[in-house]
Amino acid sequence: MSYSEILALSRQAAAGGLGPWFDDRLKAQIDAGLFLGEDQLGKVRDRIIRQLADYRDQAGVGTAVLGMSGGVDSAVTAALFKQAGWRVVGFTLPIRQDPVETERGVEACEALGLEHFHLDLSPEYEAMVAALGRVDEALPQADTNPARTRRGNLRARLRMIALYDQAHRFGGIVASTDNFSELCAGFWTLHGDVGDLAPVQGLIKSWEIPWLAREVGVPEKTWRAKPTDGLGIGGGDEAQIGATYLEWDITIFAIAEALRENPQLTATSLADALELGGDDHARRILDTVLARLRMTWHKRVNPIRFDHPLAHRFALIDRTDESLFRPAVLRQQDATLAPSTDRGGALLTPEANGSNAL
Ligand SMILES: Nc1ncnc2c1ncn2[C@@H]1O[C@H](COP(=O)(O)OP(=O)(O)OC[C@H]2O[C@@H]([n+]3cccc(C(=O)O)c3)[C@H](O)[C@@H]2O)[C@@H](O)[C@H]1O
Ligand SMILES: Nc1ncnc2c1ncn2[C@@H]1O[C@H](COP(=O)(O)OP(=O)(O)OP(=O)(O)O)[C@@H](O)[C@H]1O
């Protein structure tokens, strides 16, 4: 893997490259193995495909339904299921969508050999917005960020209703398409664009997702496309998040590394610990990342259970499932594919890297 390849695939090169702090950090993180090399990524790909195949055999379910938006996340997810021998049914579900995105979704279905259905949900979306407008006029009318986000979340949840219905119809599951960068950014809709099995949830959007997409035969047009939320909230993912995905991923790794070295750090002391110096852009991005983490931590532990007075019951049913029916693939504790250096290895342990939040 080369530095320039990461810059190209993340689309950061086209955006003018990285500022000085990010540039230094990226090089250090590549050396530390935080940005996985191509050999490692090949192993990740093989392992995900093997696990999907094992799950299909052991859980007795072999059909995956998913929304094909024209973006890279859904396309790479579909390709992995397909390569693992699943029947994959892709749905283009435009809601007042730019037709170019829908066309990319259709093309990806064709290129990957998926079954394809098309269902325009715009009328149902309009009806839902109008219905909720009867209790709150702001929803249909306001052109504010909160109102746009609420309308966007309605779109994601309408798609979810359609996909779960179709999964039931086909006796299958809904595939989750979210990635690690989105998980950290809280950049998904609770009970919306989530599903039952999330094969790419551990992969970063700036590098590993487009790399994998290219590897598994996703059309170039798709893995090169500008990431969008498909919700009409505006500006594309990176404009909404306030950082490019590469800046986001570098900052998340840097924060985690700083906290590992000094667990006493607070959000306010991080800027010094990260040695941002006079790099004002990096300071702004750090603030943006911290603000998002502060706004969204709860999404990563949803549903919130506290230290429940009857928590032993969760353990009781967990042990029962584990003993009787849970597929073996969920119990395997293979060595992780964490980087070999101490720094990277400590950051990428399963506890730090994996989450069942979605
Ligand atoms: N402290 C707290 N403890 C527990 N729960 C809390 C909470 N604060 C809010 N909540 C709950 O969280 C809800 C807000 O979360 P949620 O409904 O998810 O909505 P929210 O996070 O506000 O918005 C979704 C975000 O995800 C982005 N998105 C959505 C879908 C797809 C994509 C994409 O590109 O892939 C991106 C979208 O652009 C937007 O920025 C609140 O309405 C409330 O129910
Ligand atoms: N128009 C759409 N038709 C079908 N599914 C959709 C549509 N828009 C969004 N989705 C579903 O919601 C998921 C979340 O959207 P998201 O934008 O994160 O993914 P993506 O579009 O695949 O990738 P990217 O973020 O690169 O655009 C998609 O992966 C897809 O499953």
TrEMBL record:
Presence of the UniProt keyword Transmembrane helix in the record: no
Superkingdom of the organism of origin: Bacteria
InterPro entries in UniProt: NAD/GMP_synthase, NAD_synthase, Rossmann-like_a/b/a_fold
GO molecular function: NAD+ synthase activity
Name of the gene: nadE
Domain NAD/GMP synthase positions: 47-253
Protein name: NH(3)-dependent NAD(+) synthetase
Enzymatic reactions: deamido-NAD(+) + NH4(+) + ATP = AMP + diphosphate + NAD(+) + H(+)
Catalytic activity, EC: 6.3.1.5
Enzyme class: ligase
Keywords: ATP-binding, Ligase, NAD, Nucleotide-binding
Functional pathway: Cofactor biosynthesis; NAD(+) biosynthesis
Family of this protein: Belongs to the NAD synthetase family.
Organism: Paracoccus benzoatiresistens
